[in-house]
Amino acid sequence: MASNATNSKIPSANIESFSACLKSADRILALLGAGLSASSGLPTFRGAAGLWRRHDAMQLATPEAFDEDPGLVWQFYSYRRHMALEAKPNKAHFALAELARQKKNFVTLSQNVDGLSQRAKHPMSQLHLLHGSLYDVKCTGFYCNYVEQNNFTDPIVPALAIPSTQFLSSSNSHTDAEATSAVYNTTEEQNAKTSSTKELDISDEKVAIPSIQISDLPHCPKCKTGLLRPGVVWFGEMLPKETLSAIDQFIAKPEKIDLILVIGTSAKVYPAAAYIDKARAKGARVAVVNMDRADAPGGKHGLRKGDWFFEGDAAVLIPQMLEEVVGEIK
Fold first, then answer.
1. CA torsion, points 268, 272, 273, 278, in degrees to nearest 10?
2. Is there a contact between 222 and 137 (Cβ–Cβ < 8 Å)?
3. Which pLDDT value is given to residue 205?
């Protein structure tokens, strides 16, 4: 059973041996998964119940879905962007960011798209995103290479504003076009919202959402004609070559790797599982932080004598684990 986050306390023998390793470590690799951000309160869309409205979230995360209905896909991602911005980086994000500032040979590979590490001011030169980011956008134009990183504008265009109860009352008596107009009006007047106006949960299929015209979606400021898309890796797409190359180059350097941190991920699938083996082959000890011991790397990627498994909430455990180097995270 997973440990209660409020009671996650590392046994002294474990924290002392880990701290000694961390303080002397020069080259460190970290693999980050969704468990890092669990305490920040982000909704997830996984497994059989991974639905957004009536749509399978995995099916929305495809190039084919975007080609068929870019408005719907952008509404899904705009909702995710909004929810992630409502969340705050937790102490683990800040502790890892500080560790990166203090140890220049600490490199992080994150599977998260939520932007919380970036908002915690994790040095971007030491942070590599395996699946992209909700806050990156790129042009879909065949001849255009426009990419923008860390665009935290919410909504990214007015038509993608989260509808409010003001929209609900409007949509009950107006056409789709008028309802869409009501969303614009709501956005323009959001600074004047009263306590009686609140955002609607558009993940609920019972809540009406406007149909959005392609002309109202984000368009490329460079080529002027291409439609922008979220800068995440969709199912069926290749992982970013630049990211994989950066991690491979870090591992391939002749110097040993002292430590690999596996935080909030089971690391049982490619390429994360392979990185544990590669780091271990370069001399690394392995430290795993996860809510469930069953998610420890298994098989030939499993833990060995001299490794650590810290069971509990990463937001609680990571600041404790890193405190000897980064100090207290307030």
1. -170
2. no
3. 86
Cβ(77)–Cβ(133) below 8 Å = no
Do the Cβ atoms of 162 and 184 come closer than 8 Å?
no
Query: In whole angstroms, what is the distance from residue 123 CA to residue 93 CA?
Result: 12
Report the Cα 77 to chain-centroid distance in Å. Answer: 12
Looking at residue 199, what DSSP letter applies? B
pLDDT at 177: 45
Per-residue pLDDT, 49:
52
Write out 102-143 in H/E/C secondary structure: HCCCEEEEECCCCCHHHHCCCCHHHEEECCEEEEEEEECCCC
User: Half-sphere exposure of residue 7, counting CA atoms within 13 Å on the CB side?
Assistant: 3
Q: How far apart are CA 217 and CA 74, in angstroms?
A: 8
Closest CA to 329 of 45, 29, 72, 91: 91
Q: Taking Cα atoms as reference points, which of 131, 81, 137, 134 lies closest to residue 111?
A: 131
Q: For position 214, what pLDDT does the model report?
A: 95
Which of 82, 122, 131, 219 is an active site residue? 131
Q: Where are the alpha helices (DSSP H) in the chain?
A: 12-24, 57-60, 63-68, 70-86, 91-102, 116-119, 165-171, 176-188, 241-252, 272-281, 314-326
Mean pLDDT, contiguous 10-residue spans, the chain (330 residues): 51 87 98 92 61 87 96 96 95 98 98 96 97 97 96 96 68 46 44 61 87 96 97 95 97 97 84 88 94 70 83 95 95
CA-to-CA distance for 201 and 82, rounded, in angstroms?
A: 11
Q: Alpha-carbon distance 36 to 310, whole Å? A: 13
Contact indicator for 221, 106 with CB cutoff of 8 Å: no
Buried b (16+ CB within 10 A) or exposed e, 163-193: bbebbbebbeeeeeeebbebbeebbeeeeee
Q: Describe the strand order of the beta sheet including 132-139 as a list of residue ranges.
A: 147-148, 132-139, 228-232
Active-site annotation holds for 131: yes
Quick one: how far is CA 119 from the chain centroid?
Answer: 11
